[in-house]
Design brief:
Protein name (chains A, B, C): 4-oxalocrotonate tautomerase
Strand order of the largest sheet of chain A: 2-1-5-6
Structural class of chain A: alpha/beta
Number of domains of chain A: 2
Largest interface: A-B, 31 and 35 residues
Radius of gyration of chain A: 18 Å
CATH topology of the largest domain in chain A: Macrophage Migration Inhibitory Factor
InterPro entries (chains A, B, C): Cis-CaaD-like, Tautomerase/MIF_sf
Oligomer: homotrimer
Organism (chains A, B, C): Mycena indigotica
Distance between the termini of chain A: 28 Å
Pfam families (chains A, B, C): Tautomerase_3
Helix content of chain A: 25-40%
CATH superfamily of the largest domain in chain A: Macrophage Migration Inhibitory Factor
Largest sheet of chain A: 4 strands, mixed
Strand content of chain A: 15-25%
Shape of chain A: elongated
Mean pLDDT of chain A: 95
């Protein structure tokens, strides 16, 4: 987590564009302290007969669904949420607004870290040394390795 | 939002049937005051080896997942929820119960409007003049246009 | 419900493996008292250009998304959540950890039973005689049949 699901009309984005977009979305979270590998992005391409916007085939509409878990807004003020949404909109702009389609973004603040595992274990606490190591290594570092790295700090 | 995800066995519905179903689902929400374009419906067709119901290939089972955001039940009484579910069941009946399959409907009451954007901006407040204009125009009317329309009211 | 969505790299699991995995996941819930048919499992296979992990094509990464509704953790202690996650991890181990991929499991505790229908009706209350009959029959037994069965108990 976070996980971003992009539902797009068939053929709307090229493989290369998806790659660039995924990198840029990942950058947002790395910028606020998350390990890059926490970020999952996937694209679902649908034909007009499988995707409807207002009851009509969605041929120029993109639906973006985001779920947060590693970090949550919780009781954060509305301004913090707007700031994040606006940052996200700015990042995706060239592929979305810039092309004249309609689009919708929804972020779901899913929040139980106790129901989340990476490679079979609970991710380290927010702001912990362990999390910093996971971030630096960019992988779910196993406990024994983690202990060894901590011993060298 | 709302967004309806229908997971169906491969080939269960024709393109035409999907279109009709999407229109009828959209009608429900228009009937309670939402702009039609708020409603997104999409179909995911799966082969038996990718879709399981009780551990067996789901060849005559339909899974319907609904997420609400533009309007929520919140603290509404159970009766209001049942009423909505029953209305929904009545609408989809010809394609579902009427064909003898098993099916499951689940509505998720996702509720943070501050984490929702249409075409890069927060949708207007529930019951506002702006929302009425969005509904009438059936599109996310940009702010400048919205001001111009309001000036003529 | 529960519903398990497995997002996997294209071709990662065979049809047979998916079947076995679905049965074993279903077993977990049957073991804690749920009717087997409550459990829905589906697999989404994605190409590397449609699925990203840390901004890179997810060629050896599996994303497992679980939603609970028939039973919820609610205020259960963290230990109960860990216990369930660990049980789940043990069940999927041969297809996941045993093959050296990276993976993520997230359980969402979706909890409004009043917004859930099986075959057009609200499922019986937890622990009720009716639920026991649904479990034994392994299908959403209609009310009239349910009354007939109860009369024989």
């Amino acid at each position: 987590m976070p996980i971003h699901r992009w539902i797009i009309p068939k053929g709307y984005l090229s493989a290369e564009e998806k790659g660039v977009l995924s990198e840029k979305i990942t950058d947002i979270y790395e910028g606020v302290g998350l390990p890059r590998f926490y970020v999952v992005v996937f694209f679902v391409e649908l034909e007009g007969h499988d995707f409807y916007y207002g009851g009509k085939p969605a041929k120029s509409f993109v639906r973006i669904d985001v779920e947060h878990i590693a970090r949550n807004f919780g009781d954060a003020p509305v301004a913090a949420k707007k700031e994040f949404l606006d940052k996200y909109e700015a990042v995706i702009e060239p592929w979305i607004k810039g092309r004249g389609v309609d689009w919708e973004v929804q972020i779901k603040d899913i929040c139980d870290r106790d129901l989340w595992h990476e490679n079979g274990r609970s991710p380290p606490a927010i702001g912990s040394v362990e999390e910093t190591i996971w971030k630096k290594e960019n992988r779910p570092v196993p406990d024994d390795e983690l202990a060894a790295i901590k011993a060298t700090l």
